[in-house]
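Need Aquaporin Z's 3D structure for a figure. Predict it.
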Amino acid sequence: MDTKTTTQTDEAQPRLAGCLGAEFLGTFLLVLGGTGTAVLAATVDHGVGYLGVALAFGLTVVVGAYAFGPVSGGHFNPAVSIGLATAGRFPWRRVPAYIAAQLVGAITASAVLLVIASGRAGFSLSAGFATNGYGAHSPEGYGVLPAFVTEFVLTAVFLLVIIGVTGRRAAAGFAPLAIGLTLTLIHLISIPVTNTSVNPARSIAPALFVGGDAIVQLWLFILAPVLGAVVAGLLYRPITGERD
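Structure prediction for Aquaporin Z:
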């Protein structure tokens, strides 16, 4: 995640092409590792279950943040880029390019996962392909309001943690661990509700391959995380007392 400890200016940013490459790779890893575990390793009685999927998402963020965070800040999530820009930690002019790189990375990972998963006898996209959903498409049947509240609140919490552990008063070098553990906790709470998004790129990519209701319900998994991230970005200075 964003390891800068002060407000970033355009001049202080690394070369954009390198940042976009890092965002592509980090998001690719996140989606392949997280949704790949859900699709390939959590579908049978002896599979990893909710706990395994939660750990997979958390671990991919830790690994990606250590590997690619020094290059791009390690957002790997449009909501993170928007939240950090709202908080003044990231330049708005770079947000569209970051989001584009994140979406391409997520879609590429889902395409690779589809190729792998299609090699299993009986595989069907109609089984969900780790898409997010509410109502009949929620893992435990939760409706639209609890799904929206879950995604909104947990994304806001995620951003507040990211902002806090990357602040100038935070211990250096531990941010990826704290962020990865937070994402694991978020998944433990919300997999039964929505299959956990808190990341529009993670939601969009598999939905594009599944189609149907996965696309129809996608609005929630874009809107709620973005709103949660914006609220967190607006709250960060009043809570922490930090100034530019």
